Amino acid sequence: MKTVAIVGGGSGGVSAANHLASKLRREIEDKLVRIVLVEGSKRHYYQPGFLEIVFDLMPQQATYRNMDRMLTKGIALISEYATMIDLKNHFIKTERQKIDFDYIVIATGASYNYDAVPGLESGTYNFYNLDKALELKTALNHFKSGKILMGVSSMPYKCTPAPLEAVFLLNDYFKKRGIRNDVEIEYIYPIPMAFPDKGVSDVALKMFEDKGIKSKLGFRLKYVDNDSHEFVSEDGDRTRFDLAIVTPPHVGNKLIVDSKIGDKMGWLTVDNLTLNIKGYENAYAIGDATNLQVSKAGSVADAEAIVVSERISQAIEGYEPVSTYDGSGGALMITGIGSASMLTSSYTQKPIMMPESYAFYWIKLIYNNLYWNMTAKPVLNEVIQ
Ligand SMILES: Cc1cc2nc3c(=O)[nH]c(=O)nc-3n(C[C@H](O)[C@H](O)[C@H](O)COP(=O)(O)OP(=O)(O)OC[C@H]3O[C@@H](n4cnc5c(N)ncnc54)[C@H](O)[C@@H]3O)c2cc1C
Question: What is the pTM of this model?
């Protein structure tokens, strides 16, 4: 019997497991293949919701589901964290067991390294997990006047448009409360643009001008001075705040570092077309865990999950794997309460930003529900079975 192991049951891992279970249904029934998902978290989180709950666009309970509800028939869930992956000898160690595999998909996402910026964790808010988002929501509800900084500490980080979405939402949130004139909003970004693509950056900066949002671009945050309430940059530049929201530094997962299979930041190096971990034909990595030059986005993780599930099923069925990833990804980017735009890109297409509209905003909110049955666990899988 062949074992396909998936490590990490977030957006990419769950999608890969469900697509594999659908494609290899017969082989699983005939006990020729088993699919094992190793995931220590009891919950699967829909992370785009973390920003939305801050502004009451989504209830917090809608951002997660129990892990066992996420999986289609034919997948064995191991509710333990992996502690080591040995790619050469084809096994994974968890807290309690050793799992041999024939194929592996690593989808352990990104971690946050608060220690990289002194003063960051104690002095700032963010929306990069559920608890932090709820803390920020409470802080904003009590905020009546002063200066808010929305900053990105370093690249790369998840969902490239999220910090822009946050400042646009802050603008409308304070307008709705009737205190926008009492609140100064400043956007801090580590490169000399408002977004990694010049075209999108130019559009965003024009919107900042229209909405009275200030910006400091090329500001590489060195530390947060919590006595003087200031951000201090690598160049010694300072900017003051009354409330600060910061995208924390992102690094690869500790498991990748401990297993010595990643680069110095803990990201996995994969072939950009096949998504094979370099040097291993039976090992793949997808989603935020890789150092591919694509957005760290759920849409990317899902597109990659489909490619690797096709390649693994092709190999198991005795064919040469032919499916490849074209670098495609996209995001619905909120530009205010009631408006959104859509961004798409691929290896061969620079990011395209569509004109903002209510329709995109509506699709974004609808997608919050569709995610569960369309992307993470496609209902089609259930119907086929
Ligand atoms: C605020 C915010 C807004 C976002 N908005 C968007 C958006 O609008 N559009 C979009 O496309 N993307 C968005 N994203 C990004 C998207 O959520 C991520 O890119 C996506 O979740 C990546 O999927 P992944 O499977 O790689 O990692 P994750 O979904 O983070 O999953 C990683 C999983 O690995 C598990 N894991 C970790 N270590 C171990 C271990 N040792 N053993 C076993 N399991 C382990 C974790 O428990 C977790 O379940 C947003 C993210 C945030 C934070």
Answer: 0.96
